[in-house]
Design brief:
The chain has 282 residues and is α/β, with parallel strands linked by helices. It has 9 helices and 7 strands. Strand 2, helix 5 (110-122) and strand 3 (130-134) form a beta-alpha-beta unit.
Length: 282
């Protein structure tokens, strides 16, 4: 259940977002550019074997999540967002400028949070009510526990979105389910709350035998972390989130947005799913 290895992917993902025109150059680095070039062969291999690339998957999930977050702000009165495991996500930088009254809190492991905070400070990147804090989703209490951050940093009177992007598949289902249960429980304090995340489901049924194992292995090698595919289909995803305490679980596919967003599509059916779950106050 070690979460320290995940931050390696922040460099690569940040570079992908920049190369795709949805992030800022100050969120990149020479190491990130090197990683991006080094991992391109993995993408070409994945495209040839399973018809899906890591690059496209990263853009698909980010575009859909941005779209849904923007919709909730405009239509549901959301005025506070906590983005957990934020990495080099440009979302806080972008949304805190687009919506000056929005409280945006970015959270990540302490060393990653310190790095993100320094980048934003050096580039005048903080919005009016925007901060970066240290947080480990598996810790409890001050100073970095998830419960501490949500109770001490966030405003309990604001409609709130909790976001994790690129986090779920790095942990075993039992471990990440504990995080989901805590988010569902802690989120009940807000007048309205939503949890938005992404995942890659077990796409083996849609491919030739052995391709799913090859695809999962390539993802693991590319990210230097184990990749866990928790669910086999839509029903299992929905049931898994409902059992953790969420309600009104909506599951979105990239195919649903091709006519509305500049979203890349591969040669095969998508395997990325964005899960939007509501949290009701007791």
């Amino acid at each position: 259940m070690d979460s320290t290895g995940i931050s390696f992917t922040a460099l690569f993902t940040g570079q992908v977002w920049y190369e795709s025109g949805i992030s800022n150059r100050f969120f990149t680095s020479p190491k990130g550019r090197l990683l991006y070039k080094t991992l391109r062969p993995f993408d070409r291999l994945a495209d040839s074997i399973i018809g899906i690339t890591l690059h496209d998957m990263l853009i698909q999930r980010h575009q859909i999540m941005d779209h849904r977050i923007d919709w909730l702000i405009k239509t549901q009165g959301v005025s506070q967002i906590l983005e957990i495991a934020c990495g080099y996500s440009p979302r806080g930088y972008t949304l805190s400028r687009k919506y000056p009254d929005l409280k945006y809190v970015e959270a990540d492991l302490p060393h990653m949070a310190e790095r993100k905070r320094a980048l934003l400070q050096a580039n005048h990147g903080f919005g009016p009510d925007h901060q970066v804090v240290g947080c480990d989703v598996f810790e409890f209490g001050a100073p970095y526990g998830l419960d501490y951050v949500m109770e001490d940093v966030l405003d309990p009177d604001r409609p709130t979105i909790l976001v994790t992007e690129g986090l779920v598949n790095y942990f075993h289902l039992d471990d990440i389910s504990q995080v989901w249960q805590r988010l569902a429980q802690l989120g009940r304090v807000y007048p309205k709350a939503w949890y938005i995340t992404d995942l890659v489901y077990n796409f083996g049924k849609h491919l030739i035998p052995g391709a799913v194992a090859a695809g999962s292995k390539m993802l693991s090698l590319a990210t230097r972390a184990n990749v866990n595919l928790h669910f086999n289909n839509r029903d299992e995803i929905q049931r898994g989130f409902l059992e953790c305490g969420f309600t009104d679980v909506q599951i979105q596919r990239p195919e649903d947005f091709v006519n509305h967003l500049p979203i890349p599509m591969g040669k095969s059916k998508s395997v990325v799913r964005v899960v939007e779950s509501q949290i009701h106050a007791p």
